[in-house]
Amino acid sequence: MDNQQQSAVKVALFSDLLCLWAYISQARIDELQEQFGERVEMSFHFIPLFGDTEKRIAEGWADRGGFTAFNQHLHEVAQGFDYIDIHPELWLANVPASSAGAHLMLKAVELVTEAGSGGDDKLYYRAICAFRQAFFRDCRNIGEQRVQFEILEQLGIARSPVEEMISNGRACALWCRDIEARDRYRIDGSPTVMLNEGRQKLYGNLGYRVLEANVQELLEGKHSGQASWC
């Protein structure tokens, strides 16, 4: 391993694919990777906040109007972020029953892309972004396996190896690691950015400069050999 890889700051993002705030924060993660390049080592982990959308929205928002009220709420939030697109029928048409199936599919993609050689090292992240855009922008039901494989096909990801990772249980095992990490590091919600082996956790709608400052501080600490004061 070269010195640049050794000095990279590990940044772990915990989120649910169906979480609007995680969709909003995607632009900040893009900028973080663009600005710091190989000085940051990103990992992406999924937690099932929307594991049962009927319970979370239809029941959880029942006194406010259920899915209709939730749709209106998300559009109100989205008005403050002109760089994202929200479909008018979001959560009203093609509603996923759960985010779990999409999470499992992407864990399989993570395993397949890690096993490959000479390919696109950002393909896993591109798949994550494509799933989110398919849901929020295009109002597609990413909980359906048919839709998931259609998205992967558009990205040039072969179906057979992904299916193999699901059928042999490895994708499920990898996702269980995400759940265990959530509990171990006491991740409260989506999105949460974790740095410094769990010592720093940044949760919710944080500005990019907050992320940048935390990463920069850790990088400077690595170069100086001193502990971070973050």
Describe the structure.
Strand 3 and strand 4 form a beta hairpin. The radius of gyration is 18 Å and the shape is globular. 53% of the residues lie in helices and 10% in strands. With 230 residues, the protein is of the alpha+beta class.
Name some characteristics of this structure.
single chain; 230 residues; alpha+beta; Glutaredoxin; 4-stranded mixed β-sheet; 10 helices; 4 strands; globular; disordered N terminus
What's the helix and strand layout?
Blueprint: H1 3-6, E1 9-15, H2 20-36, E2 40-46, H3 53-59, H4 66-78, H5 100-115, H6 123-136, H7 145-154, H8 159-167, H9 170-184, E3 192-195, E4 200-203, H10 208-224
Helix pairs in contact: 5-6, 5-8, 5-9
CATH class category: Alpha Beta
Number of helices: 10
Query: What is the overall shape?
Result: globular
CATH topology: Glutaredoxin
The share of residues in helices is 40-55%
Sketch the major β-sheet.
Answer: 4 strands, mixed
Strand line-up of the largest beta sheet: 2-1-3-4
Task: Please report which band the strand proportion falls in: under 5%, 5-15%, 15-25%, 25-35%, 35-45% or over 45%.
Answer: 5-15%
Tally of DSSP β-strands: 4
Domain module count? 1
H/E topology pattern: HEHEHHHHHHHEEH
The structure class reads alpha+beta
- Compute the gyration radius: what is it? 18 Å
Which CATH architecture would you pick? 3-Layer(aba) Sandwich
**CA-to-CA gap between the ends?**
27 Å
Could you give a quick summary of the protein structure above?
By secondary structure, this protein is of the alpha+beta class. It has one domain: Glutaredoxin (3-Layer(aba) Sandwich), CATH 3.40.30.
